[in-house]
Design brief:
By secondary structure, the chain is an alpha/beta fold. The protein is built from eleven helices and twelve strands. The protein has helices at about 20-25, 60-70, 100-115, 150-165, 180-190, 210-220, 240-250, 265-275, 285-295, 300-315, 325-335, and strands spanning about 35-40, 45-50, 55-60, 75-85, 120-125, 135-140, 145-150, 170-175, 200-205, 255-260, 280, 320. β4, α3 and β5 (about 120-125) form a beta-alpha-beta unit. α3 runs parallel beside α4. Bound molecules: ligand PBG.
């Protein structure tokens, strides 16, 4: 045998050089796909977060600077997560709609310095709630069982969303998973004349152990119980469709799947079934697993980072929330196939 045989179809022809691979590439990441989640606190100094290497709790000044650096490499959307002092946390989380609170101040500072950047805010009570839940908690005096009150929580979320809109947020993003909150927030915003403020809904947010490092970063873990009565069961996919239908009917502008990497089937499902723009959140645990393995020299951080993001986009996400946003944008600027 000469080692040659008749083989008219050879898929490898389309992989023969960087130029050809560039021509046939189906999924291309760009910095404009990324939403950069940023932690902030009411302090003068920027504090590195031990549980999330590479991330900081930013001071307002540090935050403005970091958004500027991200914008310079093409990342034009950010989302804020505040660490709130324990002394300001209450059962109803009233600090969440304080017009002079940390988030409204951050929105104003960032919009003033970087008006080209879309500011997204998280709408949920967990940073502000003394029980560490996304909603108001009621304890059964007899059994001690916890109940997360839906409709009472939605009222507070509306005030929070409105407070962010007044401060200048471009997009509000309810991550609480209460029923009916998208419609209620839309109505409150519209009544107050904020019909241009968009809603990015956490549509399929799963009760995931991958959020652990995030809760450590904000000191926002539930004091008791878990989030399984409001976040979705990781075993379910049909339920994601039902949540999507409701969010669309209630007026959401964009939907989100969270986490991203372990839920690529849900991203694909929603991409095929709905026509709204779709976001996916590569959460703290996904980020940390890559960081930790790379720090130990087990994997190539840059390559795994870009591959994980490409996979999320290939599955059908139009935009990706990722702690790698700035780093990935920098790599893309100099990348070759
Ligand atoms: C809470 C919220 C969480 C995250 C974003 N918003 C945590 C939770 O639901 O407990 C997690 C993000 C991450 O892990 O990176 N409203």
């Amino acid at each position: 045998m000469s080692g040659k045989f008749e083989l008219p179809i050879r898929p490898r022809r389309n992989r023969k050089s960087p130029a050809v691979r560039g021509l046939v590439r189906e999924t291309v990441l760009t910095p404009a796909d990324f939403i950069y989640p940023l932690f902030l606190h009411d302090g003068e100094k920027d504090e590195p977060i031990a549980s999330m290497p590479g991330c900081h709790r930013w001071s307002l000044e540090g935050l403005v600077n970091e958004v500027g650096e991200a914008s310079a490499v093409g990342v034009k959307a950010v989302v804020f997560f505040p660490a709130i002092a324990e002394s300001l946390k209450t059962p109803h989380g009233d600090e969440c709609f304080n017009p002079e609170g940390l988030v409204p101040r951050a929105i104003r500072a960032v919009k003033e310095a970087h008006p080209e950047v879309a500011v997204i805010t998280d709408v949920a009570l967990d940073p502000y709630n003394s029980d560490g839940h996304d909603g108001i908690v009621e304890k059964d005096p007899k059994t001690g069982d916890l109940r997360i009150l839906n409709d009472e929580t939605v009222e507070v979320l509306c005030r929070q969303a409105l407070c962010h809109a007044v401060a200048g947020a471009d997009i509000v993003s309810p991550s609480d998973m209460m029923d009916g909150r998208v419609g209620a927030i839309r109505e409150s915003l519209d009544e107050a004349g904020h019909e241009d403020v968009s809603i990015l809904s956490y549509t399929a947010k799963y009760a995931s152990a991958y959020y652990g490092p995030f809760r450590g970063a904000l000191d926002s873990a539930p004091k008791a119980g878990d989030k399984k009565t409001y976040q979705m069961d990781p075993a379910n996919w049909r339920e994601a469709l039902r949540e999507a239908e409701l969010d669309i009917a209630e007026g959401a502008d964009m939907l989100m799947v969270k986490p991203a990497g372990p839920y690529l089937d849900i991203i694909r499902l929603l991409r095929e079934e709905i026509d709204l723009p779709l976001a996916a959140y590569q959460v703290s645990g996904e980020y940390l697993m890559i960081k930790a393995a790379a720090a130990d020299g087990w994997i190539d951080e840059e390559k795994v980072m870009l591959e994980s993001l490409t996979g999320i986009k290939r599955a059908g996400a139009d935009m990706i929330l990722t702690y790698f946003a700035k780093e990935a944008a920098k790599c893309l600027a100099g990348s070759v196939a």
